[in-house]
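Morning F.,

Quick status update on the modeling queue. The single chain you submitted on Monday has been processed. Sequence for confirmation:
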Amino acid sequence: MIGSDLTLSPFGAEVLAHLDTQLRSARSLLDAVLRQGRAIRVPDVDAVLTGLAEIESEMERRAGLEHDRARLLGRAGDTLGIAAHMVTLDAMTTLLSPGEAQAARTSSAELRGLLEEIGREHRANRALMRQELAFLDHLMRTLGAGGSEAGTYEADRRVHATPSTPSAATLRVLDLEA
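Structure tokens below.
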């Protein structure tokens, strides 16, 4: 966050405002990913789908932020006489006052930490979803609603039955006759 006692240059104000917007977006994305993880664990399909929509929406917003970031890097690169993709945070801070530079470093470190946490949680959610889908695939095979070849639950949520697969009515999952 930008300190109230910090006098900002126009470029410094833009950089710090952008970092602040990035932080708000990352916090929102982390919140959505965490809520989705809880919904997967319950399981609450509606909440999982709602979480997915929230994550997609935030990712679209982040794409716009990346455009703004590229513009800022381009301006810094022009001033520094280097290509935008070569601009590092350290190089950019040479264009800022010491207070602005410290605020930018602090915000950037927090942003990196949030993005790492989002990545970890997202990977965990993906692993949980794979487990859930593997269970559904096993269940569908057991019940005889076979998929395209051996009975699979496909990613597009359609279950395909093959003529050679027995129906659920003819397959005995638990046979109580001795």
